[in-house]
Amino acid sequence: MKKMLIFLSVFSIVFGPLGAQHVWDKEIIRVEKNPEIVNELSGMNLDLLMEKDGVIYIVASPRDLIALSAKNIPYDIESSTFYPEVQKDFTVQSGVNGQFHSYPELERDLMGLADTYPELAQVIDIGDSLEQRNIYALKISDNVGMQENEASVIFLGCHHAREWISVEVPYLLGKYLVENYATNTEAKRLVDNCEIWIVPLVNPDGLEFSIHFYRYWRKNMRNNGDGTYGVDLNRNYSYKWGWDNSGSSPDSVSEVYRGPGPFTEPEIQAVRNLFNQNNFQALVSYHSFSQVILYPWGYTENASENEALLFEIGDRMSQLMEPVNGRYYGAERAGDGFYLTNGDTTDWSFGVYGIPSYTIELPPESRIKGGFFNSESDIQPIFNENLPAALYLIDWCIQTYPQKVRASQSQTQQKKRTLRIK
Hints:
Layout: H1 2-15, E1 27-32, H2 35-41, E2 47-52, E3 55-60, H3 62-70, E4 76-77, H4 103-116, E5 121-128, E6 134-140, E7 151-157, H5 165-180, H6 185-193, E8 194-199, H7 204-212, H8 266-276, E9 282-287, E10 292-295, H9 307-325, E11 330-333, H10 345-353, E12 357-361, H11 379-400, H12 409-416, E13 420-421
Parallel strand pairs: 7-8, 7-9, 9-12, 10-11
Antiparallel strand pairs: 1-3, 1-4, 2-3, 5-6, 5-13, 6-8, 10-12
Helix pairs in contact: 5-11, 9-11
């Protein structure tokens, strides 16, 4: 009892202000997806949880429910079929987050990879979160301590705190490459000819809050100073930031709140700084909403001038993924979906750097357990089906890499590097 009182006291001190945001009075609702309803939902800045079989699931506040009713949009409350009522398969041995990584567990395992494979893997602290957690990048290369004149690619995970599976896929990609380097000729060829950067956890503060306090938490832990908390990190990039109030929200209570300005959040500044010190040829950002490969633009329904190339790469990744487990990930332009996004990762990396950029939405539900959140048994199968797509994209970077990097670039950037090697 004494331990419980201590816990509740600490919780109320640290997280008590979140009560003003009423994060615990939300409901999971389902809305049938049809053109009329999609049109009505557009611009409402709802917290979209997932889309499955013609149904849209939403984490709805009382204010959202009132707004839906005002628009005469019918909905059903589904909270009882979602976590924690349904998902009970986490083991006692593996803790509340099961085999999904917490921040300290990921830190330990990344350091373990670097210690076991020091010639291939290096862990770099690229910046700190709001709550002073390190944001780690795993660099994989045959000459990992050097910046070589060769292709480079980046994989990101967990912009949104509740999307735990988006940590696992990029982490397991790094693990696969170093563990198979000595025995798999294809893995060796890719690592020998490309600098592969993996940032599996962009939002460490949000992840920890999602694990220990509120499973549906999405944003980072920014105190907005008005009784609300959190900025949507995937709306805080500079390209087309705040383009309109449909693709992001100026309202701090919204789950797609874009922040007071572009790059205000240290987690996103860390990604930007990493880009500034490297020459990436492609990007993948892993999320969990439906089961699709999205490419720019997201801020508009219009196609980019590189539409054909973006679709070609995305479609090829889709073709490689489906045979593994029979799951089909369609490739489509993000703006063709039923909601727009502005200030997001892929529009920024494509719009500013001109590189093929993809949001891969991982299957958000467990086929066995049901609900939004994956079971532990889903981790390996979802990684397995994403692996051939990731390997293909690494190879694409190698095959298309322009051999014209300035000879002095490596030495100059190495001297100016502010990243802290762990």
